[in-house]
Fold these 2 entries.
Entry 1:
Amino acid sequence: MGQANKKLFIKTWGCQMNVYDSRRMADVLRPLGYAEVDGPEDADMIIMNTCHIREKATDKVFSEIGRLKEHKKAKEANGGKMLMAVAGCVAQAEGELILQRAPDIDMVFGPQTYHQLPEMVLKATGMMGRPRIVNTDFPPESKFDLLPEENASQGMSAYLSIQEGCDKFCTFCVVPYTRGAEFSRPLRAIIDEAKQLAQNGAKEITLLGQNVNAYHGMGHNGSQADLTDVIDAVALIPEIERIRYSTSHPRDMDERLIDAHGNIEKLMPFLHLPVQSGSDKILKTMNRKHGRDLFFDIIEKLRVKRPDIVFSSDFIVGFPGETDQDHADTMDLIRRTKFASAYSFKYSARPGTPAANMQGLVREDVKNERLQELQALINEQQYEFNKSCMDRVMPVLFDRIGYKDGQILGRSPFFQSVSVTAPQRLLGQIIDVKINRASPNALSGEVVLVEDIYEAAE
Ligand code: 5AD
Ligand code: SF4
């Protein structure tokens, strides 16, 4: 098919799943001659891969369309053409409405249709006028079966989507509506992709899913596989030295998975486990299907299996009906757990979700106060954890160039960002670093001198 002579710019918002999807969209468009570029100028196609999880998502997309359409106009003034597309969860949620409000948009398509992208592009660039496309289907076939093999190198730290969608229906969340029902890829397909990533230089793989520990795909010989089976299988690939998974739900942290944290050395001692609230009453109205004690129980068990494990989480403040006492319960849960980091958000009503119709709205100023209080505590805990790393030697996977001259950056096993002054040829390697500086958000240190690291290049 055509050679790479068309420019594709993809702008991505939101979660790692979207980042992964954007890569796969680039993969599927490559045979049509589209090559990815870093900016919208002079692009032949722009895809906005959007996120709908929190407030103002749709507004943000429309203001971005406003900015990007200037590039489309400039291109058309020179006699060129630019396709503009909205993909992702805002596309799924708003569909047709986007075409109505934004005349410059040519295509709107949801997350389950990316394998149909070549067909949609051919239609949209067809001779017959300027057909505009809306595709928010949940097709019966899985996009994973039809997307081309992972063929773009993701580098040393790669993401692999193993599960998508969610059947949990937390009352605040749009994911079950925008991403659809839970779907797990077969184990075989995951292993093949992991091997491909390893061949392309990956040393670390993060297994992705909206609800990744609910994974239940087809295993070998028709059996059913769970997340622990996936981790076991990926751990067998020699080049893969580190495994992570995200995002998990406390309800799906079963005993085998907890044991895996003790048994599988490659599984990193950092777990993102969203709990959302520390109040049993709020957890119930959120439909999280567990109480705070289950969370404490899991944390304790994991610490027994893997004493150095640290945790991060997601919190929502100001959910409808949240009282001062409920908030105090959340603060107490955080104090008792001691997190290495966490994300926190003010509740925002998402249209179509059950919580959007709930009574007991929390005032905006109260939400702000609670958020500030919670974030101050988390920041304090994060800084404490970073400080506790001082003088420790830890393996760091160097994966990017630093901001300062001569600096390279990497990740500790605990997902902290670590900077060192060292030659760029160390990128892609896992090397011991002695930590000598801890700031609230990052660490820095010195490469522990192994003579041949330096001698190799002399
Ligand atoms: N309001 C605020 N935060 C939300 N999240 C999801 N939906 C909402 C909402 N309606 C947060 C949750 C989730 C994270 C990805 O986004 O904390 O874990
Ligand atoms: Fe949303 Fe809850 Fe599913 Fe997470 S588990 S994606 S918060 S519905």
Entry 2:
Amino acid sequence: MEVLGIDVGGSAIKGAIVNTLTGELTAERFRIPTSQPATIDETVETVCKLVSHFSWKGKVGFGFPAVVQNGIVKTAANIDKGFIGVDINKLFSKATGCEVNVLNDADVAGYAELKFGAVKDFKGLAIFLTIGTGIGSALFSNGQLIPNSELGHIYLKNGKKGEHFTSDSARKREELDWVTWGKRFNKYLIYLEQLFYPELFIIGGGTSKKLDKFEMHLETNCRVEAATLLNNAGIVGAALLA
Ligand code: BGC
């Protein structure tokens, strides 16, 4: 079956048609940059442009950078605050005329990694982390997603919020080198490890391509793997969970 997967990000909205049996993209990915943060109107307009680009009439799955519970946006850490309380399923389905399902961006990306990535079918407790503007997380136990975990918002022992201390935007904002950032990220992982005792961390987002630059600073007891679907994980997972 084919489903259009759309990944709503902090600075762009990307989409592609996905074969949900193989996880492969059947049409080339299309990316439209947006303002940072984009207003509700701009987001809806951009989503509609993507749907028209693919002349799509079928199901659409979305990854959205917030807690989304039963179709309602509950948080807005890095997006327009006006999204809080919006029935995003209703908004996107009305605007596109398609059947839609909107879920948290990290949840869908993590799901794609567990279905089609290098850690395919991992059964133990796994924590997927996507390092970008914020830090998104997805928890899996026995391959089952426990939705809407917000581990980027955990306060570390130094009083700082995880995503403010060690996101990719923190690295850029504070011009941290990989050694300094890697040591910060290590503190964050160790703290999560003490709280959840996972058997695997999967690191996603653009930073996962740079794992070789900081993995020597990671001192967790559990396995740490880079995500393998990279930029397409959000699109693929959104389509799979539609
Ligand atoms: C949001 C999460 C989201 C993550 C990655 C965080 O700031 O609270 O819901 O998954 O950013 O986009």
